[in-house]
Amino acid sequence: MLLSVGILLHGASGIGKSYFLHILESHLSGVKINFVTSPDIFQTNVGQSERKLLKIFQDAATYPRSLLIFEDIDAIAAKSDNALDRSVFGTLLAALNKIPPHVAIIGTTNRMDVIDPALTTNCRLDKVISMAPPTLLERAMMCQHVNVTEEIIKLAAQQTSGFVGADLLSFVREASMATMTDKNPGTITSEHINSALKVVRPSVLQNQKTATMVYTPMFGVEDALNTLEVAIVNPLRDSSAYRNIGIPPPKGVLLTGPSGSGKSHALGYVANQIAPFATCIPVLCTDLISKVVGGTEKALSELFATARQAAPCILLFDQIESLAPVRGFDTSSEQTFDRILSMLLLEMDGFGSSRQSIQSLSHENYLKQHVAIVATTTHAKLLDPAILRPGRFDLEIELTFPDALARSQAISCLQNQTKVAFETEFATEHDFNQWLVSKSEGASVGQLNAVFQEAALACLRTDIHATNVSMTQFKNALVQEISKAKLSNDISTEIDVNME
User: Fold this and answer.
1) How far apart are CA 31 and CA 107, in angstroms?
2) Is the pLDDT of residue 500 over 50?
3) Given its phi and psi angles, is residue 285 left (phi above 0), alpha (psi -120 to 50 degrees) or beta?
4) What region holds the AAA+ ATPase domain (predicted)?
5) pLDDT in tens, 30-76
6) Which of these, 318, 258, 285, 287, lies nearest to 491 by C-alpha position?
7) In the chain, how many domains are there?
């Protein structure tokens, strides 16, 4: 029986691959261990690189027991059309095929996606081990080596989802430096934690462009937010409820509703709620579209690879119709959007837990591989039916415009920020509130906010020192925004009719 000659160890940069191997070295007595920096194998003259690589294997074979550790093995084992790269890789494969039984190999990489499949087949480095970022509990244990209170350790662990060991070291160093200007240097507080978080990001997200998600109060969507809580947030806190009932949590949640109904704000709510438990990557779908053929597919592939590395991770796609339109209407010669959709479907099928696996996984192991999607679109009809089937978007949540009670709550909140001199026409603030509720039927919270904003700007144009908006200015702003809303609704209605 052919035995595997080695192991391929992969994980994000800074996760601790080299540290782990040096600990392994200290536990292996009687074994000749040689650390090889793979990029250093390449030489200037033709044939020298191959000869140097062969000599490494020949020297290892002279010892009774030997272990070769190739760090960053992707430098000599990546998929490439370059003649030199192919020659060196061919030499590596030939050496692995002839390696004697007393020599073992360990390779490390942080770019598993570029590794040539030939390296991990035919009893070469076919034992692939993935190092995942530390969990909440593991981050707390790592932070215990710092002289801080239990409360600060808990806070630091909660706020550093997706951080690897090197990130945590940079984070602690940054927080410690932030204390230097205090009366008690070296004493880390929550303020220093927040200051460090603005500077240090998880390594897996360093090259990932992300949007900034801001959560603001929402009104009239309590049922939708509760559904999001159960489907997305609760499994991150404790997946036992899903395990007990025998089903995996939803892989994807689709938020639908007209423009202004609060879909993007709902994404902000999700980002705010999951921050202590998981990495959150908000993505504006239009930013992924590239003019270069294949550029969007590559960006999608890298995005999902990043999400898997940063697990547990939630991807927040705003305006997903940009990536998944109905097939058959792509007029480009390259069929760009059909290819983008195919890539998106492929990536969505590549993660998630089955009924069988959720039963056998502990919560800690479940978190290490958990990736989910929350996406928004104005109408599900804009999306290709393939992406809506169960197993991709398992749950659809429809957001509608606020009812009278929700509008009343929103108006009260807005008036606390922008004062309106309602006394000239109404006896009480409640009367003004109910009048505006009756005048704003069918309006979104965003449109109500626009009314107050336009009224305030009109007030400042009249008197830059004013503190209250007059009723005349407010009514003019209301009429103006109602006209805009009517035009927008007419356009939306025309689009809906054309979609039927």
Assistant:
1) 17
2) no
3) alpha
4) 3-135, 249-403
5) 899 999 999 889 988 888 999 999 999 999 999 999 999 999 999 99
6) 258
7) 4
